[in-house]
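Record 1 of the preview.
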Amino acid sequence: MSLIAPTKRLYAGHELRTLRTRLSLTQAAMARRIGLSVSYLSQIESGHRPVPPRVLAALAAEPWAPRDADDETRLVAEALEAASDPGIAAEPIDEPALRRAAQQQPRLARRLVATHQALLRAQEQLRILDDQLDSSASATDSLPWNAVRDWFNDASNYVDAIDRRAEALAETGVPLEERLRADFGVTVTYGAAGGLVRAYDPASATLRIDGAQPPETIRFALADRYMRLACADLVAETVAHSGMTSDPARDLLAAGLYNYAAGALLMPYEPFRAAARTTRHDIDKLRRQFGTSFEQTCHRLSTLQRPGALGIPFFFCRVDMAGNITKRHSATRLKFARFGGACPLWIVHEAVAIPDRVLVQLAETPDGVRYISIAKGLVKASEDFTRLPRRYALALGCEASFAADFVYADALRTDGAATPIGTSCRICPRGDCDQRAFPPAAGRIVVDRDRRGAVPYALE
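->
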């Protein structure tokens, strides 16, 4: 794999393999123990991938790990992350120097790590404040819809119990319509559903589906009803422990969990992850193989976060014609604006105006991280002339270090120039952006009476 990473990483494959050999563990057993896939562990041991900090933490938590050595290794890894943060304008510190610091001045190294973590927390708080300003009222942030989106984001968009049950139920080969009738006595009819996509009558156990919808949407409707009957207990338990404080939030979370379960039933985890790796995450190939829509497939790719069987960490979002982000999740370092105002240089905005064509972009955020981002505009037809069709765009992407595993990267030179994007103008530090809508909140502007660039001020 070609790795194009903005920061240095800790490569300790030899040490990890030595530890595994000393413990007489196979790669499969070791991978299960520390929450990795076998292939990922193999790549670490062969020196092709760095050891993620979370794996170092998992090793340190094991009773068989040498405590002092692991503490030092974890400290070095965290110090490397802090010292090589591209968002900090200072000369980076090389790995040998940090190793010596961890051995000779561990308190100084821990102070460096703590300071960096405080900086990251402050940046997150700034982003939240920016969200509140952009929403025009901080109370908007506590609305049920936003609470549910945050819950899924905090869960890494993966719900293990529901996903595993869906995977077990998927391995039958029997069409869903037949399974609904055989397992739950549900009759499915097709035709106009009174302006609804689908409607279910519990009294007669009848599911009515608008037959004019695309086949993928109909299959999803069948999967949704099946999982509402097959995993109601798991959804109820998950909602009960979610911390949601209002009935609307709990109801929305339940609806989101059933949608998640339907996607997991149509695209069972291990077969889908294997197919994604084989096709290099080619969405059109995957959706044809699993009979799903482009959006359903993109969303499923963003959920492959099962411990011990991780997929590529993707970000995924849906943007409407006004630039509002109506669906979002990120397993990467990229963070979305919650109330619109996303960077106009991001390719997803262009895709809204160009339906049914995949656009590809190499983008770089202010922290120096590069992303391969794809976007596709979609149009959902309306019932009749009096109702406008729904137009929106989807974006899916990953860090450029995964270029070899993402087929769309073949259209780019990942070592070439990248489009500079940010989360929001209000917190973006770029001083030379021609698309800036307003200055950053913490910036000082200077207006020159005699000279002017693309914007009427300069930043200091």
